[in-house]
């Protein structure tokens, strides 16, 4: 089974690197290999191809440095069908067209083997992101959302609370500071995720 390999975010953000043309005689996977930040990809077949090729969903999310397989089903054709597959990233900021030709499938043997549909396409589970990369991504999201200033103010507030607790030296103040730290830490975790 031929595979249509598409590289995303290779040289620039929302960059699409795909072959000029693709030929198949049956169902095929489109494999998105994301080389950078997570992105949404939209697939659309032109009118001629849309009659014989389908995907379950037109929009697909591909995580940070992940691979995503999208299965394309094709109908049996008696003669070659040509058309264009439109691949769009960045909510329309970048578009790439691939000339696709679907040929009639060769004669099948008399004895066919039934294959359960669950095994027809690879699982769509993305590989686990390592903990170190998760931490880097969380810090990146915190800075992008403007949370760096909030984190700095929170850190100053916690430092001031600890200073007051040390000066007053009261159990009640220490408990209040501990509660404030717990709430601040929980809020920081929620902001990062």
Walkthrough of the structure:
There is one protein chain. This protein is an alpha+beta fold and 193 residues long. The chain has two domains: 102 residues, Immunoglobulins (Immunoglobulin-like, Sandwich), CATH 2.60.40.10; 61 residues. 32% of the residues lie in helices and 30% in strands. Strands 2-1-4-8-6 form a five-stranded mixed sheet, with no helix packed on it. A five-stranded mixed sheet has the order 3-10-9-5-7. Strand 1 and strand 2 form a beta hairpin. It is elongated and about 85 Å long. The chain starts with a strand and ends with a helix.
Can I get a quick summary?
A five-stranded mixed sheet has the order 2-1-4-8-6, with no helix packed on it.
Helical residue percent band: 25-40%
How is the CATH topology of the largest domain named?
A: Immunoglobulin-like
The biggest beta sheet is recorded as:
5 strands, mixed
The beta-strand count equals: 10
Radius of gyration, CA atoms, in whole angstroms: 26 Å
- Poorly predicted ranges: none
CATH class of the largest domain: Mainly Beta
How are helices and strands ordered from N to C?
Answer: EEEEEHEEEEEHHH
Q: How many structural domains can be distinguished in the coordinates?
A: 2
The 3D shape can be described as: elongated
- Overall mean pLDDT: 83
> What order do the strands of the largest sheet run in, or round the barrel if closed?
2-1-4-8-6
User: Which oligomeric form is depicted?
Assistant: single chain
* Structural class by secondary-structure content: alpha+beta
Approximately what portion of the residues adopt beta-strand conformation?
Answer: 25-35%
């Amino acid at each position: 089974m031929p595979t249509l390999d598409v590289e995303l975010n290779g040289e620039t953000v929302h960059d699409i690197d795909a072959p000029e043309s693709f030929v198949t005689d049956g169902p095929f996977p489109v494999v998105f290999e994301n080389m950078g930040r997570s992105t949404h990809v939209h697939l659309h077949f032109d009118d001629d191809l849309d009659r014989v090729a389908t995907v379950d969903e037109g929009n697909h999310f591909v995580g940070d440095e992940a691979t995503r397989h999208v299965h394309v089903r094709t109908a049996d054709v008696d003669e070659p069908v040509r058309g264009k597959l439109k691949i769009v990233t960045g909510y329309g900021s970048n578009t790439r067209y691939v000339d696709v030709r679907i040929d009639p499938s060769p004669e099948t043997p008399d004895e066919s083997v039934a294959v359960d549909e669950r095994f027809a396409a690879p699982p769509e589970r993305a590989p686990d992101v390592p903990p170190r990369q998760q931490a880097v991504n969380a810090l990146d999201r915190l800075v992008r959302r403007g949370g760096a200033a909030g984190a700095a103010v929170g850190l100053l507030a916690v430092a001031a609370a600890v200073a007051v607790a040390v000066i007053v030296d009261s159990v009640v103040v220490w408990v209040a500071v501990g509660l404030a730290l717990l709430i601040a830490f929980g809020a920081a975790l929620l902001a990062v995720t």
